[in-house]
Amino acid sequence: YKLDSSLKKNTAFIKKCKTFSDGQKASLTKEMGGLNLTKYIGEVSSALVETKLKMSDITAMIEFCSALHQKYAEFSTFLLENWTKILSMKKDEKVANPSKMRVDLRLYSELVSVGVFTLKVGL
């Protein structure tokens, strides 16, 4: 069957990605299976990086990112670009939100360990 590439459904999916949590993983993964996100994969990766995650959401996020990476080869490139913008800091700069930074770094390291990011392209 044909995947849906309508702007309306893809935009709604991206909005849901911005509020990702452990409980939403199953429904988002199912919804992703019926969508053609090729044109929107950059927006999806940006939405996932903006998400305010808890430590309990990390496993679900890893599985979701892995599924996106398996379906869309360019996903990891877009995700890494967005991470670089968020995580890059100057030496003397203070961390605005240490708890978010801790969760983001944990997620980043897990994405490296499952192969979404390779060690060569790290930050």
Question: Which descriptors would you attach to this protein?
Answer:
123 residues, mainly alpha
The gist of it:
With 123 residues, the protein is mostly helical. It contains six helices and no strands.
What would you say this structure looks like, in words?
The chain has 123 residues and is mainly alpha-helical. It is 60% helix and 0% strand. It has 6 helices and no strands. The protein has helices spanning 7-18, 25-33, 41-50, 58-71, 75-87, 98-113. α1 runs parallel beside α3 (41-50). The protein is globular and about 50 Å long. The protein starts with 6 loop residues before the first helix and ends in a 10-residue tail after the last helix.
Secondary-structure element string: HHHHHH
What count of helical segments does DSSP give? 6
Share of helix, binned: 55-70%
Poorly predicted segments: none
Approximate shape: globular
Query: Structural class per helix/strand content?
Result: mainly alpha
Proportion of beta-strand residues = under 5%
- Nearest-integer average pLDDT: 90
Q: How many β-strands, per DSSP?
A: 0
Rg calc: 14 Å
The profile of the biggest β sheet is:
none
Distance between the termini: 39 Å
